[in-house]
Amino acid sequence: MKNLIExxxxxxxxxxxxxxxxxxxxxxxxxxxxxxRQYLIQAIRNPLNWIIGVIFAIGIPLIAGRFLFGLSxxxxxxxxxxxxxxxxxxxxxxxxxxxxxxxxGTTVEIFxxxxxQPIERLALLNGLLGYFFAVVYLLVxxxxxxxxxxxxxxxxxxxxxxFLVAWHVATYLSVQVAEVSASFFEWIxxxxxxxxxxxxxxxxxxxxxxxxxxxxxxxxxxxxxxxGKVHPLWYSSSFxxxxxxxxxxxxxxxxxxxxxxxxxxxxxxxxxxxxxDKLDSLTIGLAKGASLALITYLAIKLIGVAHDNEWAYLATxxxxxxxxxxxxxxxxxxxxxxxxxxxxxxxxxxxxAFLTVFGIILNRINTALIAFNWKLYQxxxxxxxxxxxxxxxxxxxxxxxxxxxxxxILYTWREQTDTVEELAKEKITYPKGNPxxxxxxxxxxx
Amino acid sequence: xxGISRRRFLAASVIGGAATTxxxxxxxxxxxxxxxxxxxxxxxVDLTRCVGCRSCEAACNKEQKLPEPAMPxxxxxxxxxxGHGGQKRRPDENAYTVVNRYDPPGANHPLFRKLQCxxxxxxxxxxxxxxxxxxxxxxGAVVYNEKVCVGCRNCxxxxxxxxxxxxxxxxxxxVIKKCIFCYDTRLKYGKPPACxxxxxxxxxxxxxxxxxxxxxxxxxxxxxxRYVDHIYGETEVGGTGWMYLSGVPxxxxxxxxxxxxxxxxxxxxxxxxxxxxxxAIWPALFTGFHLLARKKGHAxxxxxxxxxxxxxx
Lengths: 446, 313
Description:
The complex is a heterodimer. By secondary structure, chain A is mainly α. Chain A has 19 helices and no strands.
């Protein structure tokens, strides 16, 4: 793509091609303004596509097998470990990493920190996709996924934490679709839709905070049903939901740093100058926020150990594993962030963000899988389960990239042509105007 | 920036809050305590009498029309079988009850223990189910409606006795499989479950739960040398319909003795009670933050998207 741009291929970043010339057609927008041949060539040249192709070749038949032959085809079908890697990674780890949407929504819309705006849309998209794919993972894991809407319409288990999770994730997913749709409306050129979203932005953001607080916490509270099964160091009937909620904050912020790092490295052509110029200072800002949240998280984790008087467990093997998790995912990031922010070392900040993301994933997998059934035995997921997880993650990456390449997430849609378009629209509505609206556009194009 | 007036903003946040409150209000009420029905039935299992003949397994298999097992019910070698993870046998989709052998230290003969759903007074499976597939019947059985089950398997996570099993091998109609106290065919009509009727050793005593506790206490009182002074299930996780008497400490017979007296749902209530508070406080709190942030400075100035729109209007 970079080479193509250097060779003079225009980038789609406004409704029209060049200066007030022909409008991009939808097909051209989808092909990034390239000819089909150019598009294919750039796709084939990208080594990532080959890796993803290999993953798909192995993984998609396995997913088909899961739906044709049942869960026992891809998992150990364990009755002791009913929740395997699909949920441990796909749901419990993906959801906190997607807290970015509500975090930056709050920063920009509620606290009025509009300097974070260049990265807000990336954070919102990251949230939306993370949640969406958490639901995809869930659908693969559910015994009867076609009954997913049952808690909404057929039968209500109102006392269950999962009932809350289901409702909140569903509602929040729609909130996020609305938030992200602003970019989509710009891209397809339907401005009334975009303006409507801007009008309700604050309402969306506030409901986003409420829903996020509750369901991020609720995911933790799900494990309070298993007091004897989750190891005491990872369990706390009073605080587990706060642990999950609190750790989702650095998780979401660091995920934005991580994604923006990848984006800057691999698709700089798609970012506008504002994004690239401000990214470094925004990264520092996000890292500061993440540090504070991590310090808070460390404090409440220690309070959790003290509250249930679990110090003795720290001396066991489980305690060492627990302390290692906290060291890699919390203590080390706090120290690295502090040093790197002070010395303005962006490389270290970015590395630390990846480390924090890893730490959160480790925490969720620990709670759901490794420290679960600690009195029984250690479940090692079936290799097919791992491959299916990877495949779904590859689908997530492809979708993520597909959207970032197209929608105005990393760049600002150049709207100077708005007025032209508005005028065009108004003219169309004139009954006595040109009979064929198509003609209108055509004449404008010339 | 004139984009969002205060009134419009408040209205929007109220709508957001109301939407969530509506979905939540039912739940907050649902978190009450359910203590079991007074006339609930139960079974007292006297482990000192069990000889491991597995007649109960065979009877259950027949009554519940389960598939024929790989090994016949009179083959004692099943006691040496281990399942996934090197565990002793456990109830699964093909067997709602299993008998396991234990060798307590110092005992001169092995001990056998029948496992099945304990039919809790306040079942964890029931309280964890988000489609309300489980019912605790007046007769004391915990039954399950497979027609609404989504297959999330939260009940299997929640059950402190690891009882519910899933028919993983089914692609299009996988459901939870567990002992239902022979509710449909027997308990509903006042009859004891098939396993109780089949037991040749009098290990299983069927009756009102309250009376079973008295019977258990009497047996312990009459033969304190024979029994451990505890009825497992009298108080565990809020009390269970099926209860056990043992001659050896319960942990030596594979029981989890760390479960405590509180029903599982008690651990979850702390979270459930915070839910309405978050719903009530958050909208005002963040509305307040927003108003403060706006009043303080002219932070909106570099709001590029916003300013573009303003130029247009």
